[in-house]
Predict the structure.
Amino acid sequence: MKKSFLATTLMAGLAAASISLAHAADSAAPPPPPPPCGPMHHGHGPGGPGGPVLRLDGVKLTTEQKAKLKQIFTAARPENPKADMEQMHALHHQLREALTTPGPVDQAKLQDLERQISALQAQNALKRLQVEVQVHDILTKEQLKQIADRPEAPPPPPPPPPPAEAGH
C-alpha cells in the first residue's frame, strides 16, 4: 500500500511540477498542458511530496526565460504518459493478484514486482529533478534568492481515515 501511494505521489508530483512551473511562465504563450493524471491522481499540490522545489509563482520572468521554460517543459513531456501510467497500473495489478491468490505466495515474484515498481518511481523522480535543474539554470541569482527566501510549503494533511465498516 505504501509503494502504491508513493507511485501515485510521484506521478501526481510530475503533473503538479508541470502545472506550477508552467503557470509561472504563462504570459507570452501558454506552455503545453501537463500529462493527464488519470485515476491514480491522489497527489499533493505544489510544494508537497513530489511537487516542484522551485515554485515560480510570483517570480517575474523575462520573455526569454518564459520561452526557455516552454522548451524545457515540452522536451520533458513523456512521449506517452498513458503508457507509463498503464505500466505502473499493470505492475500493481500483478502485485495485488499475487497477494490475493490462494495458496503459497511467490516471494521471488513479489520482490521482482517491487523492484520494477521502485525502478519506475526512481526514474520518474530523476526526470523531475532534471527538469528542476534546467529551471534553476535559467534563473538569475535574484530570482533564486526570491524563491529561497520564501517559507517552505507546509506538509500536506494526513490522508483521511478509512471508512468505518457497518456493524463493527
Summary: Residues 88 and 120 are 8 Å apart (CA to CA). The mean pLDDT is 77. The chain has one domain: 2-149. Residues 107-138 form the longest helix (32 residues).
